[in-house]
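re: ur msg from earlier - yeah i can do the 6-O-phosphono-alpha-D-fructofuranose complex, just paste it... oh wait u already did. ok heres what im feeding in:
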Amino acid sequence: MREVITLSEFIVQSQEQFPGATGALSSVLRAVELSAKLINREVTMAGLVDIIGTMGVKNAYGEEVAKLDDFSNEIMIRSLRNCGDCCGVASEEEEDIHVFQEELCKKGRYVVLMDPLDGSSNIDVNVSIGTIFSIFERVSPQGEVCTHEDFLQEGSKQVAAGYVVYGPSAMFVYSAGQGVHGFTLDPSIGEFCLSHQDMTTPWQGKILSINEGNTAYFSEGTKAYVNWCKEIEKESSRPYGCRYVGSMIADLHRNLIKGGIFIYPATTKSPAGKLRLLYECNPFAFLIVQAGGLATDGQRNLLDIKPKELHQRMPIFIGSGAMVEKAMEFLKVHDIEKVEA
Ligand code: P6P
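and the outut:
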């Protein structure tokens, strides 16, 4: 019989690799897993029950909050509060941090940052969406309430990060610093089962993923790189294929497996780009680097950047290392050196 290893079993077995492990991180990961199962159930029912559509309220960015956004946010917060090892949460859906006041939670060693349902604008057209999470060890004293400093740490200090893609099948993909591992939900037993152990991304890919509708707002460097990707040059497999779903989780999950570069650059319309450093860029940067790729803002490694505030946006060039390095060369020549000249 095929050996099925569930996510819970894998987390416990992986814990053995950390001599000082107390099981607290495993407990937080399992809280995320429980949330994913509950969210997946609602997402797969969306369209059949009154869970489509918006709440009639806007989030911190002035974006309409979908009912599923709010549901997913509440589910994650409840699970993380109940696990007893998390002292607070920062959510893309909430203006400020969510400080757990319960005595048990104050003893929690970890904080979690999350985008409970990324890509929710795609729900009503049945495109893959997902949950993104990032886990840090707190810097504030255990036993007290968490502080903003717990959440404003460089991405390199993440102890774990991952995502759940609610697509043709639901997949839970995470890393705790020992490689990237994927688990596919088996609905017949209600368990995420190991399906992609030690995921790595090719150093050279052939997929360009960028919203070219924004070309008029791109920098000269970004335009030059995109045009270079479209030139005919057989040895380097160009022109590359273009794939853009408009749901970060779907685009990055594909590129993680097949290779490629995903770009949401700074533009004249959005000088800091669109995606959020804490809730989208850092967790994916952690994963992609663990999988052998690169993640930058066009100049700096994303994981080295000290966040200034919770909802900080950040340009992102992420994926196959050779492609990210090439893109940075174009930005250096056309944007940076030109400006310095
Ligand atoms: P645009 C979804 O709204 C999201 O936050 C990401 O999931 C996705 O990559 C990006 O925005 C798409 O943005 O401007 O291309 O529609």
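cool cool. The longest helix spans residues 24-45. ping me if u need the other ligands too
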